[in-house]
Structure formats: structure tokens, C-alpha cells
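User: Show me an example of a complex going from sequences to C-alpha cells.

Assistant: Sure. Here are the input components:
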Amino acid sequence: MTATKQRPAIPFPSKEAWATADEFEQLYRQQAPRIYALACRMAGSPEDGEDLLQEIFLQAYRKLGTFKGDSTIGTWLYRLALNHCLDYVRSRQAKMRKLTESLDGQTTEPAARRDTPIARLDLDRALERLPDGCREAFVLHDVEGFDHKEVGEMLGIAEGTSKSQVFKARMKLRAMLTR
Amino acid sequence: MHLTETSVNEFVDGTLGDAERRDAERHLAGCAECRQLVDDLREIRRVAGELESREPPVRAWSRIERAIRLEQEHAASTGAPRSGSRRLEPSVFARLKASRSSVTWLAAAAVLVIATAVGIRYSVGTRRAADERAGSAPATSNATEIASAAAVEAELRAAESHYERAIKGLEQITSAQQNALDPKTAATLQKNLAVIDQAISESRAAIRAQPASEPARESLIDSFKAKLALLQDTVALINEMRKGNEAGAARVVSGLKQRGN
């Protein structure tokens, strides 16, 4: 992973010592906000994000024994969460392939100049209104910091498709946020 | 002629070749419209890279904790340890052992709710996809339409039944533990439940008037979800209070109040 956004290493007890209940709860308290944010943004709704968060930590509990200590526990959990989100995305793609992307026809004409900077909260809300495909690529590239090659591999699309999806997402976000 | 969307985005990402970048810079020097587009996309990219983490609802940990404990209990009762897993120490839930039977009840209800939520999420999604496919077909026979309507109706009834069972279980718990809540919080809870019950009644009335109305069906399911979430928050609050976790309880109460606004 060559994500450009550097994540701080999270100190944690040795793998022999850490798997007690309180420590698992501590792991949750440390990591849940980051994982929940990822899940909400990938799923496109807080409700589905909460379900994913729960499934991810249950899976983490089941796989604790496979953690080898080669990376920080935070990195291990992030990878597990990302894979789970990608499984969810693929499953949804298979089920919902026929759904039209409601914003596809939305204009991307140059918008009126806005007077205030884009607020993070507004961007987070606007993300929920993006079509699934371009939102997923945008979250992985512009939010999580993966490059297009990695995004393409994760989503099972060509590198060029990742680019066009991210570009499409930015133009739609611009149309939504600069009105 | 303006820069293409691709060129603008590549320029923003800094991935244009030297010659293309110089061409773009020359164009931008004389084109306010493209400069504005570049500025906006840079701003979106910058803000996206600074998006913050989100604090999950307090009930999320309670649900995970209970589900894990149920797994442990199931593994203990069947004597079948899961491969590759590291079992949490029994002390994990020692804080909750004081009222063992009701905790088991809470756990069972939580799992029912989890299963229901996941089931509904997928079944509604699948149904919507099926509806979309059916809608895009050039011609659909009456028999298929009738069968499809009947399937939707059956699915809605099944969803309603799932939600009602989950809600009933949680209502029994919250009702039995009502004295654990201070009067003000209990009043807030009752007020919010009354609002949601009203929404459920109105949605049911709308479905009776227009059985095929998709908005009415979605409204009913949304109302059920809202009620479930509120009751789950209440159970989380009761647990936090039992644990003596004032900070956790305050977070839940804050959520309950926000929900009521």
C-alpha cells in the first residue's frame, strides 16, 4: 500500500498480552472512529456504515489469532476493514448493477463562484449523494490516499476507469457544493 | 477552447507531462473559467484529504460486545472452538454478570436486531434492483406484475413481522428496566417513541390507501428502523448505567435528545 496519507502508528501491547476483553474494547475505542468513517463513506450511508462497523469488529475478533505482529494492529485492522468494505461494494455491485445512477444526468456546467470554502461536513454529506462507483473510487483515492493503480486493483476496474470515476466524482461534487 | 476535464484533473493531481503542463499553465493564465475550475477541484481534493474520523453511535460497541459474548457462549456449549481465533477471557463481560439472565436476554434481542437489520438491508436492495430490472423491460405480462406485487407484499409483511418481533423484545427489556432511567430521560424516550409510533401509524394508513406505494413502504420501514435504533440506544444507556460509566451514559442521552429535536 502506498497511500499518500500517513497514518500514525498506534502503540499497542504485544500480541501475547493484548487479547483480553478490555484490550479489545481499547482497540475498538482507538480504531472505531476511523473504521466507521471509512465504512460510512464506502457504503454511502451511516446506517450501512454502522452495520459494516459491527461486522468488521466481529470479524476482527474471529481473526485475532491470525495477527502476526508484522504490522501495527491499526494497520492490520484497517486492511481487514478495507477488505470487508470492498466485499460489501462488490456484493452490492453484483446486486445493483442495473440501478441507474441518478446523478448521471446532473449538470457539471461551471457553477457560480462560491464565497466560502468548502466545509468538511458538507463534503461528507455530498459524498452520500454520489453514484456508488465514483464515490468508491473518490473515497479510496482522494480521501484514503491510494493511487489509481491500487484503486483499480481493489475495485476490479482498469486504472484509467479509476481516474475517470474520480474525475467524475469531483465534477459532481463541485456541482453540488458550489451552487 | 477550454481545457478538457481530464486535463484539468490531471493538472490538479500534478500528473501531466511537462509539455502538457506548460500548455495548461499558458491556457490558465488567460482563462478565468478554467482557473476557477482548477481552484474548485483543488479545494475539493484538499478538503477530502482532511476529512475527519467519525464517532460511531454508542450502541455500536454494545451490539458488538453482546454478539461476541454470544459467540463465546455458543462455542462453549457446543465445545467447538473456532480455528484461528483467540478467545477473549471470560472476564470480558464480568461487569455484566450481576444480572446474568437479563443480559442473555439483551444479547439475544441484540442478535435478532442485527440479523434483522442485515436481512432487511439486503432484501430491500435486491427488491429494488429487481423492480428496476422489471421496470426497464419492454413489456411485462399481467401475471408477472401480479406475482411481483404479491412478492413485494409478502416481503413487506415479513419485514414488518421481523421488525415487530425485534421491537417487542427491546420494548420488554426497556420496560422492565425503566426504573434504571432517570425520569427526565425516560420522558424524552417516551416522547420520541410517540413521534415514531405516529409515523408508523401514518405509514400503515398510507399503505392501506395505496398498497403499491413505494414511498409509503419505505416510510414504514424507515420508521421501524428509527424505532429500533432508539430502543437500541436505550438498551445501551441502561448497560452504561449498570457499568457506572457516566461518560458513556451521557453520550447516549445526548444522542437521544438530538433524535428528539
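The lines above are the inputs; the final block is the predicted structure for all two components together. Residues 71 and 77 of chain B are 10 Å apart (CA to CA).
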